[in-house]
Amino acid sequence: MKNFTRAARSLACLLVLAQVPAQPVFAQDTAQDEAVPPTLLADQQEPWLYKNSDVPHDKAWHFGELDNGLRYAVRKNGVPPGQVSIRIRVDAGSLYEADSERGYAHLLEHMLFRQSKYLAEGTAIAAFQRLGATFGSDTNAQTTTTQTVFQLDLPNATPASLDETFKLLSGMVTAPTLSGSNLKQDLPIVMAEMRERGGAAKRVQDAMQQVFYAGQPLAEREPIGTVETLTSATPKSVRAFYERWYRPDNATVIVAGDADPAMLESYVRKWFGDWKVSGDKTPAPSFGDPVAPKSADPENPVGETRVLVEPDLPSTLMYGILRPWRQVDDTIVYNQGLMTDSIAQAIINRRLETKARAGGSFLSASVNQKDVSRSADATFVTVTPLGDDWKAALHDVRAVIADAVSRPPTQEEIDREVAELDVAFQVPVEQQRILPGSKLADDLVNALDIRETVAAPDDVLRIFRESKPLFTPAAVLEHTRKLFTGTVKRALFTVQKPGEVSDQQLHHALAEPVKPDQTIRMAAEAKPVSFDKLPAIGTPSEPVVDAPTGLLDIEQLSFENGVKVLLWPVAEEPGRVMVKVRFGGGYRSIDPKDAPYIALGQYALVGSGLATLGQEDLDRIATGRKMGFNFDIQDATFQLSAETRPQDLADQLYLFAAKLDLPKWDVNPFMRAKAAAKIQYDTFATSPQGVLNRDLQYYQRGEDPRFATPTPEDIEATTPEGFKRVWSKALSQGPVEVQIFGDFDKAKAIAALEKTFGALKPRLPAPSTANVAEVQVPKPSDKPVVLHHHGDPDQAAAVISWPTGGGSLGIHESRQLEILTQLFTNRLLDAVREKLGVSYAPYVFSTWPVDLQAGGSITAMAQLDPKSVPVFFQTADEIAEDLIANPPTADELELVTEPLRQQVTRAASSTSFFMSQLEGATSDPSRIGSVRSVLSDYTVTTPQKMQELAARYLGQDNSWRLEVVPENAKANVATR
């Protein structure tokens, strides 16, 4: 295959050798092979997407229209190899519903999966699993206010599997059953989904819709619908909605994948060409326009303002300037305007961020223009105040904006944002050979939804660069003024305490004039920063060892200072280089009494600076570059990671090495992190899922304080001196492993490594195991830990977990446990979602810390109503007991192993897969050998093996459980 990467080719050899017995890579379809190859019929002269547009056509897409009005687009794409991504878009969402039909568009999405022409009731999930597609990731659907999209990423696509897939999808969309039985089965699932989406966040979302889009359908047209309309639904009323909007002339089929476009087109024509409906197409309803109150000041038309009290959410103020949305011709001139808008917004956002970093009245603030649901063209301003003086925060943000609309920006400010946009447009050009087909298909879906076009990356970059003379201070000022001019201004302020502010006070604060704040502008004479002016890491040093690992073309370097490096140049991934640095001892190396500094490190360590660079300098020095600075804390290691480009690799390595050897300790990022951590803490209590995010890891790790989310009191007790003490020690201790995988020149990479990681001074030894607390796991118990949330009284969550193990010697077993976990997931979905309807998305997952000898687990969880918590525990216990007592059937096992086979094979077509598999391999070479068995480990097993693993780990005496219930529910354990 033309775009089959070296990684995929090499892995294919490894995986085929690993199969016992060997399996054919592709099934043959003799009838198809002998047939005459189809001829592409799509018309490229006047593609329907580009009507009234002078945007260059993306020639990779082939557009066509069937006699029945169905439109389609197909294209060849080989990333990942063998996959074909199919999207079926229906131009109907919740804004197309009548008052009595609220929620029908989303309900239909569920019912189309329930039963249709070629799928018996409740068999869709299994049918797509047999084709290798995983439910929820490869097979899914979504309903928005303006569209419903059915999505399927078919792995290992063959003529036979493609034909079957198009057949099944066509039956779902063109001939669903929509029976009373279907409705009875799906309604509880939809209601469970509604319940899980409730709580404080949903109340804020509802209030935003009602305030900002007052008088328009969008104000009350959430896709989930209402209890009243959904429970009143009948097969007849649902079918009426279906017949009104599910028509070929209201649908588009989009296909991108590793197949001949003519073949893809032939499947569209074969399976959708006979779709016939009667009657004329119903015109789309009007979505209305934003309207200002008659009493509003024409110069500052402030409309509705509302204060919403939510005790557990941080105080957040959002106001919007709204204008009518109108469909436009997607021309080059129009896109040049959008580019200028982006520059204008970026300049203001950078000024706001600079002001927030310096310490002031707000923690964060931003502006963002959005076209919302074809209902409004809006500019939103979001502010998170610090402290109680919200008026000062709003004033300071408005003052920055007032300055932006009163005077043009400097050319330096414009040039900086233009450089950032240039990189954003250049990267897709460099990486277009590795853009996944699923993303290309989704991009076209989004373009259809907003009534715009798509263009090839080369054309986008060319148009942008040719447009640079247009980005003048005067032009940016003109667009800035338009962004902050509109029909009406509306606001929503979420506060924690009643009486803090009234609707009228908020209205007055938005209406009063404000003087421009000129102090935050970037000075034209700002001191330049560049890498060649930064201090050296140390004395450059050549590697003392450069040897092959024996796996593919991956090599290992070793430096005298103990740094070890894995290198894999892969030219078939153009323009992308992945860099990962693992160092130190992770969670386990931090003293438990210093636990609050762990969370603050995640917030502030990178922003604290390095060498002579503060946070602002780091931003400036990365301008026009593709660089990253992600920081992660794992069980037994810390990790820095980034995706960069070949030309930026040397400087990316400097940033990471300097963070270890030349850390800077700016106070402002630490203070801002403290404020953010304290503000965020209360939000966890707003829902069962929030409480799990806060506390589950703490309980799974035997109540180790290092895995607890620190309370505001814990955070308040921290100091800048303590932060420096904890993190300077963490940065200086333990071994360093560097991975560089992707498109780079080996000689240049080694030269850069010699000046950076090779020049590091010898590391202090990691804490001995005697000084590191042992891995703790919860004691088995059938009495749940009970936690409480402050959300809706009909919300709860339940967790049951079985400790397993850890360590690299158990990698084979950990992969087999993934098969067992998927078996458990399928049964749990069938029981509590499909049959009982008490939970929307129950799931089971397995963890296995490779760097530790214990601490892994199999965990099942679900969100449900409080009365169903015992049902969940009983059901999970019954599934576990049955897996112990009875081996799964061969067919049930195949429903799990085939999707896993496809997941692994697709993932392995990218070097990032190997990076994850080889983490820690420089100190534990057994991990290199374990890669060769990865496919067989995940897919080759027996029913008896699954039964043995279930017996070893899933016994009732091995489990512990946790539940999260409303705060007013009776419980024996106090809220944490």
TrEMBL record:
Keywords: Hydrolase, Metalloprotease, Protease, Signal, Zinc. InterPro entries: Metalloenz_LuxS/M16, Pept_M16_N, Peptidase_M16, Peptidase_M16_C. This is Peptidase M16. PANTHER family: NARDILYSIN, PROTEIN YHJJ. It comes from Novosphingobium indicum. Residues 283-302 are annotated as: Disordered. Gene3D superfamilies: Metalloenzyme, LuxS/M16 peptidase-like. Residues 1-27 form the signal peptide. Residues 233-420, 728-895 form the Peptidase M16 C-terminal domain. SUPFAM superfamilies: LuxS/MPP-like metallohydrolase (SSF63411). Belongs to the peptidase M16 family. Residues 83-219 form the Peptidase M16 N-terminal domain.
